[in-house]
Amino acid sequence: MTTLASACATPRNTASTSSSSVWSNFLPSFFMDTLCKAFLLDNPDRSGHDNGDDALFCWTSAAAFGVSVVLATYSARRSDGGRRGSHWNHDDASSHQQQKQKQKQYPPRHERFSVMYANRNASQGMVGSRGQAALAPPIPYLHHFLACLNDPCDPETNPSGHVALCVAENKLVLDLLAERFLQSNGTGFADSSVYTYNSMLGMPIAREAAAYFLARHFLQLGEPQSSSQQQQQQQPQFTPQQALQQIPPQCLGLGAGCAALINHVFFLLGEPGDVCLIPKPYYAAFENDMNLIAQIEPFGVDQAQPALGPTVKELHAAYQKAPKAPKFLLLTNPNNPLGTIYAPHVIRNAIQWARQHDMHVVMDEIYALSTHSTTAGPADAKFQSVIRLLDNDLGTDVHVLWAVSKDFGASGLRCGLLYTHNHVLMEGLATLSIFTCVSGPIQYLVAELLTDDVYVDFFLAESRRRLRASYDKCVSKLTEMVIPYIPAVAGMFVYADFSSLLPERSFEWERCLSAILYKHARVVLTPGESQRDVNPGMFRICYAWVSPAVLDIAMERLSRTVARLRRMDAQDWTLAAQAVAGNDVSGAADNNDKSSNDLSTRTILRAFAGVLD
User: Rounded mean pLDDT of 441-457?
Assistant: First the structure.
């Protein structure tokens, strides 16, 4: 198996000749040799000439052998009758009954969301209760986002198409990433170890690469350096060997993105019905990530100043209000959806408070390297990983998450990591990860990327430049529209306050505004209600999911729609409300209370269509 040290010392296209996989003792060696030979022959750039016939023969031979193994395995299982041992006993039955009693205190997800789907399928018997829970969309605005995918805006071919500004993904750097991966020339497929079973926590080379990356960018450097400092630090201060001493690879586990790893952490550390505190507003899909399978209940922490982070007093108030003593505290730094960075004392105080209450702290640092502030600012405003803040002494109760999804714009690779000093948790993760492990070629590809220091430094610097350019474009238009927003220094979104457009500050009217923006501006934003904001009218704008040209189109549409809404006077609102309530216009004076209640998004769209069009 290739190691990080050897990978740094030898060319990356040198195939490893050994494997730690137990399947290497079972599969004939010629199968692996045939696969590797087929790949090399099928790639003229690597073999030096075109060997199409030989490559076809090798691919066919490997495929035929693979089919024979599958059929043999299937036949063996058939002969066994497919029987499995049963371990059900009276103790299990008693525990099961107790578990059902606990779950009654916390309604399952399908009772809180998408009741229509749950009831419909329960009557037809198409899926079980867990299937009903999975029918609820992970985010309430998913159908609008899917509509954007079916009719995407393009400045040249479809300028009137829909624009999704509701996905926190950095598409501004995809050209850089694609160019870098094409330079790899398929080396990930030339190593025979990527075709076999390995540790479900990750191949050794991938875990070592991730450990080196964490040591260099989370433990060692913290906040990105200035241009002059970057030029002076082309070579890392940590050697690979020193990095692996600081961040032991055995404390790292890879998984198919942070969502999968969050689920696993809660599943392994908690019990159904346990409570997790999350400062509001928070990432809309967290509730799905922790509740769908692990059945952990989210409980929001109210904050007087969300941009500054939760105080100990606010955390304790939420602890007291929770339905049961919380077991987890989930913090996102840099913050989503605010784009702010917590000061070091906020993180330290929160961890100290959580430890006093025997709670686990899950730190989501997925936006760690997407900082883009152009000003130096105070020292507290610079991002520092919890790994650095705690001097790499996490104990058994602090767990750090990161992925290539955001900082590298590579969410499609489905590769995230968990760093923890809880070795029992890692043992459980090794078993659970069979459902969410990262494919071998992707691990090799990511390992090669994370250890390329020169390219990573260039990529992150260019990514920050592009993020800042789109951010400035977005907030400039918001300023022009007189729409307040929270200044962001990280992430790929702006949190804006559209509440001045609402006739009443309620989430019902926020939903109506969201529908109006979708129908008339053909733009989808992330509503504050889905992020558990207590203030109606807040929306997250994800400016990096589209090109700067499409962003210009979207912001101009928003500007025109906002201007039209502001031209509506009290009489317009009253007429619209009357239409919604089904009242005659002449009865407006007597029915004002009724007309502002029982609002329907569809009827409100009809009522406002005349005003907006």
Answer: 95
* Pairing state between β 494-497 and 538-541: antiparallel
**288/274 Cα distance (integer angstroms):** 15
Q: Residue 601: is it exposed, middle or buried by C-beta count within 10 angstroms (0-12/13-18/19+)?
A: middle
Q: Sign of torsion, CA 82 88 93 95?
A: negative
Q: What is the pLDDT of residue 134?
A: 87
Query: How far apart (Å, rounded) are the C-alpha atoms in residues 52 and 70?
Result: 27
Q: What is the pTM of this model?
A: 0.76
Closest to 415 in 3D by CA, of 252, 288, 526: 252
The three-class DSSP label of residue 485 is strand
Find the largest Cα–Cα distance for the chain.
87
Q: Is 581 exposed, middle or buried (0-12, 13-18, 19+ CB in 10 A)?
A: buried
Q: What is the pLDDT of residues 353-398, one digit of tens each?
A: 999 999 999 999 999 999 998 664 554 568 999 999 999 999 999 9
Express each pLDDT in 317-338 by its tens digit.
Answer: 999 999 999 999 999 999 999 9
Structural contact between residues 359 and 319, judged by C-beta atoms closer than 8 angstroms: no
Tell me the residue type at 307. A
Burial of 395 (0-12, 13-18, 19+ CB in 10 A): middle
Taking each helix axis as running N to C, give the angle between helix 548-567 and helix 453-481, from 0 to 180 degrees, rounded to the nearest 10. 20
pLDDT digits (tens, 9 = 90+) for 158-199: 999 999 999 999 999 999 999 999 888 777 788 888 899 999
Q: Is 523 helix (H, G, I), strand (E, B) or coil?
A: strand
DSSP H helical segments within 196-285, as ranges? 204-214, 227-232, 240-246, 258-269
Q: What is the mean pLDDT of residues 253-275?
A: 97
3-state class (DSSP) for residue 580: helix
Q: List beta partners, residue 275.
A: 297
User: What stretches of 255-413 show up as alpha helix (H) in DSSP?
Assistant: 258-269, 286-291, 312-321, 344-356, 386-389, 404-407
Question: What per-residue confidence (pLDDT) applies to 104?
Answer: 41
Q: How far apart are CA 235 and CA 534, in angstroms?
A: 47
Q: What separation, in Å, do the N-terminal and C-terminal C-alpha atoms of the chain show? A: 65
307 and 343 Cβ atoms separated by less than 8 Å: no
Task: Look up residue 273 and give its two tokens.
Answer: 């019905």
The residue type of 486 is I
DSSP state letter for 225 = P
How confident is the model at residue 290, as a pLDDT?
96
8 A C-beta contact, residue 166 and residue 524: yes
- Phi-psi domain of 523 (left: phi exceeds 0; alpha: psi -120 through 50; beta: other): beta
Q: Residue 45 has what pLDDT?
A: 46
B/e letters for 68-81, b = 16+ CB within 10 Å, e = fewer, are eeeeeeeeeeeeee
